[in-house]
């Protein structure tokens, strides 16, 4: 199966920003929902943000107003712009594709990246 590739993670001070990118070389990218999930060791992987092929977006409540998700259908990429970061945002972030936009659940996604580490210091 073709996997997605994340990039852009790193270390940032609280209040700062990071931009994550997802390369999604999918034949049906222009009709595929792309989402971001995050996971802390020992905890469940949780939904962060998603975008469908029309540009419609949704976010978990804790990141609304701080995170923005966009897509470039011409280049098969999705970007997650993260602002006003807090230590609670520290996680491994995963890009996922093929899910149901209306169901922000890990089980609806069939394609995944390897993850990129985001660390927010106090």
Key structural traits:
single chain; 122 residues; mainly beta; 7-stranded mixed sheet; 4-stranded antiparallel sheet; 11 strands; 45% strand; globular
Compute the CA-based radius of gyration: 13 Å
Largest beta-sheet details: 7 strands, mixed
Average pLDDT score: 94
Strand content: over 45%
The backbone outline, from C-alpha atoms, is globular
Can you summarize this structure?
It contains no helices and 11 strands.
Structure description:
With 122 residues, this protein is mainly β. It is built from no helices and eleven strands. The strands form two sheets. Strands 2, 4, 5, 6, 9, 10 and 11 form a seven-stranded mixed sheet that branches. A four-stranded antiparallel sheet has the order 1-3-8-7, with no helix packed on it. The termini are far apart. The relative contact order is 0.32.
């Amino acid at each position: 199966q073709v996997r997605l590739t994340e990039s852009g993670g790193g270390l940032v001070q609280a209040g700062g920003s990071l931009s994550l990118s997802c390369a999604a070389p999918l034949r049906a990218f222009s009709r595929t929902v792309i989402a971001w999930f995050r996971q802390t060791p020992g905890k469940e992987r949780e939904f962060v943000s998603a975008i469908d092929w029309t540009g419609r977006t949704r976010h978990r409540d804790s990141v609304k107003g701080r995170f923005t998700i966009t897509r470039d259908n011409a280049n098969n990429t999705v970007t997650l712009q993260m602002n006003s970061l807090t230590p609670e945002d520290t996680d491994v972030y995963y890009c996922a594709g093929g899910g149901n936009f209306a169901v922000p659940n890990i089980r609806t996604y069939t394609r995944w990246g390897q993850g990129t580490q985001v660390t927010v210091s106090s």
